[in-house]
Amino acid sequence: MSPAKKEARPAARGASRRTPAYVKSHRGVRNWKEAAHWLEWRGIEDIECITPDQAGVARGKMMPSKKFTSNTSLALPSAVFMTTISGGYPENGNGFRFPEDDGDLKLMPDLGTLSVVPWETDPTAQVICDLVYQDGRPVDFTPRNVLKRVLAAYSKRGLRPVVAPEIEFYLVRKNPDPDYPLVPPVGRSGRPIGGGAGYSIAGVNEFDELIDDIYHFSESQGLEIDTLIHEEGAGQLEINLRHGDPIELADQVFLFKRTIREAALKHDTYATFMAKPIQGQPGSAMHIHQSIVDRKTGRNIFAGEDGKETDLFRHFVGGMQTHVPNALVMLAPYVNSYRRLTQAASAPVNNKWGYDNRTTAFRVPRSDPSARRVENRIPSSDANPYLALAASLACGLIGIERRIEPEAPVLTTANEDEIDLPRGLLEAVDLFENDAALRDMLGDAFVSTYAAIKKAEFETFMEVISPWEREYLLLNV
Predict the structure, then answer these.
(1) Residue 131 and residue 53 in one domain
(2) Residue 432 burial by CB count (10 A; 0-12/13-18/19+): exposed, middle or buried?
(3) Are residues 259 and 159 in the same domain?
(4) How many CB atoms lie within 10 A of CB 33?
(5) How far apart are the first and last CA of the chain?
């Protein structure tokens, strides 16, 4: 940054008392006039118009800020949202058909998400966009709109979900060759990081400067970190977010992933959200805490006036038990995800629930009745946050609508019995496609598109010969 720009900053801050609140805030912009003022006040030169694809990868366009505020029409090809993680496309069939014209979808900026991009050298902002057809209808198979569809179903019943995600990830040494296994990084002590450091402050301090950058980048974007801890894995960290609106929290996870990767790269390290990046180490989860509020009264519907559990609470849990296994492909979306869902990985591999029981899929943490919630411990950190939240909340709502009774809570260790969940991607896709209630809740267009993408990704995976095959089959069969 030039000395002139450094000297100009105090003047801008000093004038902040006379500056509208939406200019000073991270998420208060309501219209294009305010957006123009917000960008001008910060001297923003470029803006990234981004939206999550099915994998949760940021797609979009970058443009000068003056062009952005001139009401320029923004569009992306519909094929972007039918792309596999490896860049291919699925085959037609089973309800999916690739559009012959690959028509454009319009990007509609959600101005309330406008924030700076703190790791860019030039003044840059970002805004998350929704997708609509040319006639203004929401594109029903894009992730942000899928979550909005589920939230609309809750709103129709006078309900509002509140969620709080917890995201685990690994820091690993830079390794551009995919044939070599990932290894933990070297911390400030100069020694490779070891495992078994759950909740270790010393483990967190190994990455002091990197974590400082994560906090700095997050604060610049208006992202609120509740707590940060070192998990059990070697170089594995977890960030907990404050509870709130599902769209806002999905936006935060979407931006956090970008933020953490950029902070790690600044320190010559990779941050990965793979579910199982290192053999012999624990997998990475994205636990989701969920409660439901009555829109009129603001009361948590999981607790009655006497503080006891309600029928709606039981039915929500019953819906999770019944339908989450069928929605697993949205919570564990890749072949690697199922390496985490094994008994040896300390992950819940069941559809049981219990009170403060971390071996169950659905845990009810200790809390006051007004804060009663259900923690879904199945999702892995590789999941698209919009789709993971949509799937989890959809299953609970189906339970409420159909008054599904849960099984009795489990009081003992639950993850040492038979695995209740699909063991692989194709099995999960098959259950997903054939759950009529889930299809109705999420939309036929999304279910068909997402299932087709996952089948195509599996076929790509099958083209790769693994070290296990070379080790045990090469000279033995």
Answers:
(1) yes
(2) buried
(3) yes
(4) 10
(5) 63
pLDDT per position as a tens digit, 280-301: 999 999 999 999 999 999 999 9
Quote the tokens at residue 321: 């038990």
Say if 450 falls within a structural domain. no
> How far apart are alpha carbons 64 and 108 in whole angstroms?
17
Write out the DSSP string of 81-97: GG--TTS--PPSBTTB-
Does any domain span residue 389? yes
How far is Cα 313 from Cα 301, in angstroms, rounded to an integer?
7
Q: What is the pLDDT of residue 10?
A: 34
Q: Is residue 466 part of a domain?
A: no
Please indicate, yes or no, whether residues 191 and 134 belong to a single structural domain of this protein. Answer: no
The alpha-carbon radius of gyration of the chain (Å, integer) is: 23
What pLDDT score was predicted for residue 198? 73
For the four alpha carbons of 33, 35, 36 and 37, in that order, the dihedral sign comes to positive
| List of the chain residues with pLDDT < 70 | 1-27, 100-102, 196, 344-345
What six digits make up the tokens of 219? 């604060």
Element housing 94 (H / E): none
Residue 63: domain span:
3-139
d(CA 182, CA 175): 7
Looking at the structure, tell me whether residues 280 and 162 fall in a common domain. Answer: yes
**Distance, C-alpha 311 to centroid of its chain:** 29
Structure tokens at 73: 């029409």
| CATH number of the structural domain spanning residue 278 | 3.30.590.10
Length of the chain: 477
